[in-house]
Amino acid sequence: MRIPVRTFITWLTVCALLVSSPAWAQQHVIDSTVLQQAISEQQSVDAANRQMVERVLARPDVQVVAARLGLDIKDARTAIAGINGVELAAVAQTAQAVDQDLAGGLSNPTITISLVTLLLIIIIVILVAD
Question: What is the C-alpha separation between 107 and 119, in angstroms, rounded?
Fold first, then answer.
């Protein structure tokens, strides 16, 4: 049985129109609720990371080291407010190590090295942000 060319083209056109209909266009790769949840979770993680860095920057001993290095804590706070995601997580990880070192009563040279590392990371963030 042979299908006429005109019939074949008609069916091909109908199929193409059905596939490209608006009903198909509403399907997404990721459901919008899943996307909203992922965004919300990342915002929560960023908020916790930012809070960790802020807590370390608020410590008087950190402020003393920053002043000795000629750094302004306000600039560091501004820089931290402007980053998120991976960059913020890296700074928060260093801040957490500093916080643990200070809370654990490690020796002064170790604390100074940790603080300098944290402050250098913040300086780099400030320079990259500008």
Answer: 18
CA dist., res. 11 & res. 92, Å (int): 60
Which residues, 6 or more positions from 55, have their beta carbon under 8 angstroms from its beta carbon?
Answer: 95, 99
- pTM for the model stands at 0.61
Query: What ranges in 1-130 are assigned the alpha helix state H?
Result: 5-19, 22-25, 32-57, 60-68, 73-81, 85-104, 108-129
Task: Give the separation between CA 61 and CA 81, rounded to whole angstroms.
Answer: 22
The answer to whether 83 touches 91, Cβ cutoff 8 Å, is yes
Count of C-beta atoms within a 10 Å radius of residue 105:
7
Distance from chain centroid for Cα 102: 26
**Confidence class of residue 33 from pLDDT cuts 50, 70 and 90?**
confident
Both tokens of residue 2? 């042979």
